Amino acid sequence: MMDGKEYIESLRKIKPVVYYMGRRIENVADDPATAPHVNAAALTYELAHDHRYEEIMTARSHLTGEKINRFTHIHQSTDDLVKKVRMMRLLGQRTGSCFQRCVGFDAMNALYIVTYNVDKKYKTDYHERVKDFVKYVQKKDLMCAGAMTDVKGDRSLKPHQQADPDLYVRVVRKEEGGIVVRGAKAHITGAVNSHEIIVLPTRALTEKDSSYAVAFAVPVDAEGVKMIFGRQTNDSRRFEGEIDCGNPKYATVGGEALIIFEDVFLPWERVFMCGEYEFAADLVEVFATFHRQNYGGCKVGVADALIGAAACVAEYNGVANAPHIIDKITEMIHLAETCWSCSLACSYEGIKTPSGAYMPNPLLANVTKLNITRFPYEWSRLAHDIAGGIIATMPSEKDYKNPETRELIEKYLKGYAEIPTEHRIRMLRLLENLSMGSGLIESMHGAGSPQAQKIMMLRRSDLDKKKEIARVLSGIVEDELHKKIRPSN
Ligand code: SF4
Ligand code: FE
């Protein structure tokens, strides 16, 4: 297993093509635009070496028997699923950010489960290829990005109906040794600082779309792969100083990129689906279930940091004991722990798949994520209420450091007398960082937008059974159970 330093060093050795703000990023590990994201991902490596967290951060490979980083594991039990979300809450607390490594982890588990079923039907050997890839990832302790969301063009049209056929990633030709793919994937978390990209289809597909039914893994620096790193709220503060960043070491969100595949060649051993369009929906659903499971872990870890920041700000403002402040903090705790309960529940209710690997309960995983599209807005609202308007009006770090204005800021932004003004400024900036901007959008749309969760919840909730329950209770249908306890009626 690599540690954090070794992971950062490993990134210095690869040269993916990454653009940002009109320039090429030559060194993802050290560029100020990407380094905070790298640091957050590095903690997924570093904490695996901390004996306090060994049980949740590491696992035993079912393929090799070796001790591995849990982010490369294929879940073998519901206990593994529970440990996964515990690991995510821990990392959310330690980074106050998205640590990115979960998407490839989930993509790998989804492929493991679904390729088993594809092979059963078509006598293909995708599952063995996935196993070999998993062993490779485990051995080298690699970080994989998971790339699912296509750019989609006109949303009312299927992939093959688009004016431009490249708006969903597709196979453009098959060659003797493999396939050539073209297209682009959007919003891909952690892409620029991963070693590999795992690509999955983004939606259910029909026969006419079979060239879009493609799954594969490709090194980030393979020929033809280009990335454009996205902007985030307040990202340019990274180039100005430290305090105004709020969470300067670890950023806020994952660091997402648009990945473009310009006729990229993939050898067959890296291809995990090629034309089996009727399994695309399964792959999407299994992947989404895994990723929706996570959000009551990682986002609640970030909420722990925000609740802590809100409580500190209240203290620094001298209002920690005001009953309405205590009530708001308690509400934030309730919201966060509700989401945590959902993540735990879908993990404990996990199911064994025919492949032998476990996945979370899909209905409950979708409930988890739907709550995350709402509750972070509410706990952020409460944090803003507690903090006061100063989070939107505070002078900059540059003014704080300017000798002409420093003393004025020191004097007039002082809160509770015992607390240095700088601590108050830092805490307010952290609160701003954790509660505004790109992190909230991530809660809304990461792992799928709310409507996607509603569709899956409805499909999984067995509405017919609920209707039958109502028919029996209302007396429309005979109540067999009641007849047993009151035979005379
Ligand atoms: Fe992991 Fe959460 Fe980031 Fe998704 S949003 S990659 S689950 S930390
Ligand atoms: Fe995400």
Describe the structure.
The protein has 489 residues and is α+β, with helices and mostly antiparallel strands. It has a domain at 283-463: Butyryl-CoA Dehydrogenase, subunit A, domain 3 (Up-down Bundle). Helix content is 47%, strand content 14%. The protein contains 17 helices and 14 strands. The strands form four sheets. The chain has a six-stranded mixed beta sheet with strand order 2-1-10-11-7-6, with no helix packed on it. The protein has a four-stranded mixed beta sheet with strand order 5-8-9-12. The longest helix is centred in the middle third of the chain and has 37 residues, at 280-316. It starts with a helix and ends with a helix. The model has no long low-confidence stretch (mean pLDDT 97). Residues 98, 189, 254, 442, 446-447 line the site of fe (iii) ion. The site of iron/sulfur cluster (SF4) has 11 residues, from α5 and α7.
Strand content: 5-15%
CATH architecture annotation of one domain: Up-down Bundle
- Unreliably modeled segments: none
Average residue pLDDT:
97
The strand line-up of the biggest sheet is 2-1-10-11-7-6
What is the rounded distance between the termini?
Answer: 69 Å
